[in-house]
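Hey, resending since the last one bounced:
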Amino acid sequence: MSILGILIGTGIVWGLTALLVVPLAKALTLHKHHWTHPPVGVGENGRTVTAEEEIDTGYFILADVIVLSVAGLVIGWAVGWFFIGITWHAKNWPGLIAFIIASLIGSALHG
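The structure tokens again:
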């Protein structure tokens, strides 16, 4: 595995997290709060945080695993490489592990 593969994998993970995972997790959280009483808390800067601004960790991990698994499989299959990424947040680790495993499977399917 080269440094280029790690850089590309990290870029894919970070990019997809920002572009697809966060909006999907927000949508799932809003859908959940639509049917329950949304909690209101205090944010990091001391202001009130509404349910619309919160992202449920469980839904974030679910969205992360689904999006990154599909991406890893498709990209690994299309390119024939497997990718390793880096993330600093623990809630991103399940999605990162799914991305690495799926890209390994995709690269094996490539031949």
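The first strand starts at residue 41 and ends at 42.

Sorry for the duplicate.
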